[in-house]
Write a structure and sequence with these properties.
Elements: E1 2-3, E2 10-11, H1 30-47, H2 56-82, H3 85-98, H4 101-107, E3 108-109, H5 119-130, H6 133-145, E4 152-158, E5 161-172, E6 176-183, E7 186-192, E8 197-201, E9 204-208, E10 212-218, E11 224-230, E12 235-241, E13 251-256, E14 261-263, E15 265-267, E16 273-276, E17 279-284, E18 291-294, E19 301-308, E20 311-314, E21 318-319, E22 326-328, H7 332-335, H8 339-351
Parallel strand pairs: 3-6, 7-13, 15-22
Antiparallel strand pairs: 1-2, 4-5, 5-6, 7-10, 8-9, 8-11, 11-12, 14-18, 16-17, 16-19, 19-20, 19-21
Length: about 350
């Protein structure tokens, strides 16, 4: 039994047209049915064929690609961490705490200075920074979070002193931003109670022509300053230490105070010339005020001489053992003899 595809009425197998609506009826031949059945069977059979196994070469290639991607990602994360601001802070803090000069040289840039520093000086500088390592770390982290538009970062300042400057460096491999920590220089002001003093700093000597001198581009650190005074009559030495707690606005100050002693020299002949240890000073007694600096250990001996038409006259010799006044007295009877003494002296000379 078959049905009309148009109206759905039952039809006899032999009919070619629908008895109800006249619609042509199609009959499927046995060969067509067989073809459809064969196609379906072939389709099902093809779907059930076993898949071809993957070759070892293909498996190895896939595994290699996965390993390479994982390795590349790992290297990227390592380099990203290596050149990160956090790594910079960590390296600097560790170098400061350990006073590790070699590590410090890798992190710190001394480009602002005109000289190279010894390992001993850098270690002393790290000792100074160690007093502020926590503040420095926090300042650098904040600086890296808030860069200025110029490309430089906020200066790291502690206790009214500018210590460091964080700046961008070149990008590593064109990807990873590097940073530099530049050291800020200080000025050292040396004062003294004497002029013409030779100052020795870190083994180097320099002359002060006045009572103070500014040494620029110095490294802030604890150090000893030695002073030497060479005068016409004596030599003096002194030392002073820098106190890092007193550094202010990138200025270090130190005072070389010499134990300089002076004496007042008098005589009954103010036109006489002063002698020290047998050598003339070229100074008249009348021109001397606070003579010195002198040593009061007895090594300096003073006397005065006066030249007249009657000859050269000398005073007594006086050793300086204190800051008391020195009085050099001429024998008035020799300088100004009476008429009787002068006649007696002339007769004695004549008879001789």
């Amino acid at each position: 039994m078959k049905f009309c595809s148009k109206c759905g009425a039952k039809q006899e197998e032999s009919r070619k047209f629908c008895a109800s609506c006249g619609n042509p009826l199609h009959t499927q031949s046995a060969s067509s049915k067989e073809t459809d059945t064969t196609f379906a069977n072939n389709q099902e059979s093809s779907n059930q064929l076993p898949k071809k196994p993957m070759t070892k070469k293909k498996k190895l290639l896939i595994v290699s690609l996965v390993v390479m991607v994982a390795l590349a990602f790992g290297i990227h994360k390592y380099l990203e961490k290596l050149y990160s601001p956090e790594a910079l802070v960590s390296s600097l803090t560790e170098a400061i705490e350990e006073k590790d000069v070699d590590s410090a040289k890798k992190v710190l840039d001394f480009i602002a200075f005109d000289k190279d520093f010894s390992d001993k000086e850098i270690k002393s500088y790290l000792t100074y920074l160690n007093n502020y390592k926590e503040e420095i770390g926090e300042e650098i982290k904040f600086s890296l979070r808030e860069p200025e538009s110029s490309g430089e970062f906020s200066t790291v300042s502690v206790d009214n002193n500018e210590l460091l400057q964080v700046v961008k460096g070149k990008k590593k491999f064109g990807i990873y931003q590097q940073y530099k920590v530049e050291v800020k220089p200080f000025n050292l002001v040396v004062s003294s109670n004497l002029e013409n003093v030779t100052v020795e700093i870190s083994g180097k000597k320099e002359k002060m022509n006045e009572d103070s001198k500014t040494f620029k581009k110095m490294l802030p650190m604890d150090m000893k300053i030695k002073g030497t005074y060479k005068g016409a009559y004596t030599e003096l030495e002194t030392e002073a230490s820098l106190d890092s707690s007193e550094f202010y606005r990138n200025v270090m100050e130190v005072d070389l105070e010499f134990d300089a002693e002076y004496v007042d020299v008098y005589s009954n002949e103010y036109d006489a010339t002063l002698f020290v240890n047998g050598k003339s000073t070229g100074l008249k007694i009348d021109d001397i005020y606070n003579f010195g600096p002198v040593k009061t250990d007895g090594s300096m001996v003073l006397h005065a001489e006066l030249k007249t038409d009657k000859g050269t006259f000398k005073t007594n010799e006086v050793k300086i053992v204190s800051e008391d006044d020195v009085y050099l007295e001429f024998d008035e009877s020799e300088l100004y003899p009476s008429e009787e003494e002068e006649t007696s002296t002339n007769n004695t000379v004549a008879s001789s």
